[in-house]
Amino acid sequence: MSELPVLRGTLMRGIGSFYTVRTAEGELYTVRAKKKFRHQKMTPMVGDEVLFLPGSGEEDGWLEEILPRRSECIRPPVANVSLLMLVVAPEPEPDLLLVDRLILSANRQQMKVCLVVTKSDLGPSLYPAICEQYRESGIPVLQASSVTGSGLDEVRQMMRGETCCLAGQSGVGKSTLLNALFDLHQETGSISEKIRRGKNTTRKAELFVQGDVRILDTAGFSLLEIDEIMDPVEMRLYYPEFQEYEGTCRFEPCLHDREPGCSVSAAVSRGELNEERVKRYRLLLSEIREKWRGRYD
After folding, report:
1. Of 104, 170, 272, 292, which sits 20 to 30 A from 76 (CA to CA)?
2. Whole-model pTM?
3. Where in the chain do CATH 2.40.50.140 domains reside?
């Protein structure tokens, strides 16, 4: 009997130690992860490109190798995202510090980023406010309503050819948006009347393929800490709106944290940079400095 060939595919979903793999031809296989990944401290992630042995008959196949990742998100745990779509809505109230944490992580991994304001039918004021917050960042801001259908074509166009991850607080309407965009049937939830926060309806990460778009639907979250240790001097490099001011501050390097003669602070005073966005930058910088000081503890 000839040996089964090793195939290449993409992890679409995982439950326990079982994973669904999709080949480029669209064939689906169920595989199990070998113990060697546990010994290597490697956890397969939805979105991983893998090599696997298909099962024979009623037997499941085996995951043989996880190919090098182009990007990696720990929370939500997904791999090879090329476009991070950050979803905000009038309800729950947007946590823009969370948004900026995710943008920082995406920029460090060279992911594209897009902001999508959903539930625009609930109120028109959020979209221009978000545009103002991120006007100098180079990040596209789109507006869409899953109820009226407005803006959905623009969102689809942004997603073409990408492996997209929708992220944001619970209850912002990520699954509802996916249903409206691609006629999926994801479970959706509502906002808790008591706490005005989202009920988390997506409990696992799953990859969907729709034409030339690959979409990762993930569990929502309301808090994300920056786990990675970064030299505080590097952080300003991941804020595109700061680039034109580099080299013009009194001190070099300047962390743009209220140092005397800081060109970023001067730009905020002149209204060239959004003050709230810079305030959040400094909050994140403070966290990164603290982690940097304790890196050998």
Report:
1. 292
2. 0.82
3. 7-66
